[in-house]
Amino acid sequence: MPILKENRKTVNSQAAVAGVTNPRGGITGVLTPQNRWLVDWLAFTLPYDEGELFVQSWLSELSPRRGGFRGYTHSMNVYETGVIAWSPKDQRMGYHVDLPGSALDLLLNAASGVRQREVSTVGFLARIMTYEAKLTRLDVALDDFSGQVQVDQCWAAWRSGRVTSRWRSARLYQGCEIGKPLNNHGVSFGSGRGESYLRIYDKRLERLSVGEVPVDQLPAHWVRCELELRGTRAQAMGLLLLENGRDAREDVASAIYGYLDFKDRGSSDRRERWPTVYWWAEFVGGVGKLHLGTARGESSDQARIEWLQEAVAGTLAWAEGAYGSEIVDHLLRVGDKKMAASLKAKLREGGVHPDSRLNSA
Q1: Which range of residues forms the domain containing residue 277?
Q2: Cα 93 to Cα 301: distance, rounded to the nearest angstrom
Q3: What pLDDT does residue 28 have?
């Protein structure tokens, strides 16, 4: 694919000039302040023409990869651990982008360097929605550094029945190499085959086993609660994050709480009436329970408007003040030339000719 070949350059030097540092450990290895939320995996599909525009605008660190990916005939690695896939002979499939936390972290740092301003996860999410993105996987997580949440405590509550859950099964897991200390320890809830799956695991232990972060730089306690969402639930959660932006911590906590609630045993015969145990209540932060259903589809048009307000409005106002309204007219004509075919089709459906400004220029 010509567009992919043309974008095999790196932008690390540009990021360095802009003062943007790359933690290299990825989002999964970066310490997040208590009471903050993060996206630990993001996967989505794009219409074919929108996918080509996305590649040109956002992907620079691409490397060859053998074979296809999940039904797509062509694929490349992006930002080390991510994958972009496409099928030139069946453009109806569009493009598929799969970004683990580490790849997403590198992408955001590179984009911040090129644009010389911070590009947040929510800002990037808003931008891909303007490309008609359909989210296929979205993992959101909360970290506990205070010691409120313990893996074995969660497992004990599950085994004793002091819990209400959207899942009927859970699994305690741990592992190590022969003769070596544990390198993973956690509890998973659900089967991983549905649209929702949750893990509570010892993130400090995982970081120690990788060895990328010195032990004296790790917190004494670090447990991650990570909710994996797919399909309609991923789309619904994505739209919710867009609605509340960087203040979406309560939404993430509410979604986790809606799926899993550890209890103190009460007098009622119905477990859902038992009080939430104090350590889980403190961790989720006193929020209500959110039950994610099918996304009813806040429109992509609205997502585009929100992105324009967040990322473009300030610069556009400066340009108009510095150079007059003529620069705005010029930018609109440039936009007409660059507009994706799918957006031009939408305008025609609404009775607007997309090239009217070009014809009148």
Answers
A1: 140-284
A2: 22
A3: 38
How far apart CA 351 and CA 284 sit, in angstroms, is 49
The verdict on residue 223 lying in a domain is yes
259 plus 327 within the same structural domain: no
Run of H or E residues at 36: none
Q: How far is CA 327 from CA 116, 304, 316, in A?
A: 22, 21, 9
Question: Tokens 């929100």 appear where?
Answer: 306
> What are the DSSP E strand ranges found in 6-125?
37-46, 62-64, 74-78, 82-86, 95-100
Return d(Cα 141, Cα 143) in angstroms, integer.
Answer: 7
Do 206 and 327 lie in one domain? The reply is: no
**Which pLDDT band, with edges at 50, 70 and 90, does 356 fall under?**
low
Measure the CA–CA gap between 128 and 235, rounded to whole angstroms.
Answer: 12
- Count of domains observed in the chain: 2
Give the whole-angstrom CA distance, residue 215 versus residue 253. 29
The answer to whether residue 135 is domain-embedded is no
* Per-chain mean pLDDT for the chain: 81
What is the band of 328 on the pLDDT scale with cuts at 50, 70, 90?
Answer: confident
pTM: 0.73
Within its chain, how far is the Cα of 98 from the centroid?
10
